[in-house]
From TrEMBL:
Matches recorded under Gene3D superfamilies: HUPs (3.40.50.620)
Protein name (record): Universal stress protein
Annotated ranges, domain UspA: 1-139
Pfam families membership: Usp
Family: Belongs to the universal stress protein A family.
Domain of life of the source: Bacteria
InterPro entries, alphabetized: Rossmann-like_a/b/a_fold, Universal_stress_UspA, UspA
PANTHER family found in the cross-reference section: STRESS RESPONSE PROTEIN NHAX, UNIVERSAL STRESS PROTEIN UP12
Amino acid sequence: MFKKILLASDGSGHALRAAHTAVKLAGYDKGGEVTIIYAINGSASKSDVLTEGDPHERVNRRKERLKKTEGVLQERGVQYEIRIVKGDPGPTIVQYANDHSYDVVVIGSRGLNGLQEMVLGSVSHKVAKRANCPVMIVK
């Protein structure tokens, strides 16, 4: 059982499966706490600014992507918080995990940007190589 879990999510199907795994690791009401981290890279952030001029609408749209992930945690009564951060997802997730001493990072094997993963190497692979704690990659 893990007490402090970092769950990387972008709202994709793989991230939702990772959320189910994070719930199991938290031990359902056994005191595990989950931080959902959503890292937004620079190009996505710029695109959001161009398509959504209102900053509040951008924040709401980003939170909306995490609703299903939140639902999984709420359904099982797992305590959680959400952190939306800006930066290249791999290094940003690693830095956050290392700076906050998590027991484990749970991340989906693929995210919303499949092309970037194929060309640059997957976010999950980068996190697994550089995080100072165990990393569980969920297919």
